[in-house]
Amino acid sequence: MSDTSTDVNPDRYLSPLLQRPGAAELQDDTAVDTAGVPWHYGDPLGEQRAIASTTVVVDRSHRVVLKVTGDDAATFLNTVLSQKLDDVEDGFAAGALDLDIQGRILHHADVVRVGETFYLDVPSDQADSFQDFLSKMIFWSAVELERTELGLLTLLGDAVEIPADLAAEAAFVRRVDWQGAARRDLALERGALNEGVDTLLAAGASLGGLMAYTAERVRALIPEKAADLDAKSIPHEVPEFIGRGERHGAVHLTKGCYRGQETVARVENLGRSPRLMVLLHLDGSAPTTPVAGDTLSFNGRTVGRLGTVVHDCDFGPIALGVVKRSALDAGELTITPADDAERAPVAASVDPDSIPTDEGDKAGREAIKRLRSGGEE
């Protein structure tokens, strides 16, 4: 349990839920955004397993929630982000990316519209740069940008309904479409988190730490910027980012111009990304645990980069990894430290179900083929 009175950095955020019995922060160094909230409450695998039978409440109040209002809020966000937001309805929820001019991912936010207000939340280490970017892009738009004191509670599993009084108190209740367990994000003032959790527990929910959420996030193939992506990452490397059919993802493929759109359009219409984010199963008998940023190799050749590593209640140690497409079916991969740490190599295998079978029609490539064949089908 963390003691806020003796914390070496009193300015950093510490959730009030850290004072709950058994609550413990993750003590290991990690690129995953974990600081300030409970990693578990004493039974991390059991906390995840409970998702199958009840609703598990996870404290994600360390994330930073930004509020965007004003007459031009929708068109402003639509212009600067990869998601189509100019005409979405109240309650719309999706992801959104900020890209550089070459289409590389700079920020990844979750978005929800509540009336005429938009809320965007990001990992704590992304908050300052993302807020600064949005502020600089406002120019003369009728837009106001505010950093809130809202804290997120993520509810995994749909066995328990959110009591009406609590839902009315929340800034928003966001239902998230992803491949993991049924998920709702509840935004409350940080000062009301304890009371909100007590209300949910009284309704039949149970507490789970961020480790349980992280395992579900990895299974859902959703990256966290600092841990899972690098300076070269582009949206198509993460299939879950690309909006297809009824899935909004974080990138709308037919919306108007935004920074980095050229790269998105080129990959979508002409080819495939050279790398792909996949789920990895790690050797559970290894004496050491790899960390995000470690190297993935095959027969001594570097083929990728390891991301978030977590223990799952069903699969044991799993991870996200960005892997060259040429190595996706190469066989057993080897994880080695990216730094000079004296950690033993660990074997890993790609989960075949995490390799997408449909990445969209390559209309541009088909057009090129027809031109080269003289227009013949």
Automatic annotation (TrEMBL):
Q: Where is this region: Disordered?
A: 337-364
Coiled-coil annotated residue ranges, if any: none
Molecular function as annotated in GO:
methyltransferase activity
Keywords assigned by UniProt, alphabetized: Methyltransferase, Transferase, Transit peptide
Which superkingdom heads the taxonomic lineage of this protein's source?
A: Bacteria
Under InterPro entries, the record lists: TrmE/GcvT-like, YgfZ/GCV_T_CS, YgfZ/GcvT
Question: What protein name is recorded for this chain?
Answer: Aminomethyltransferase
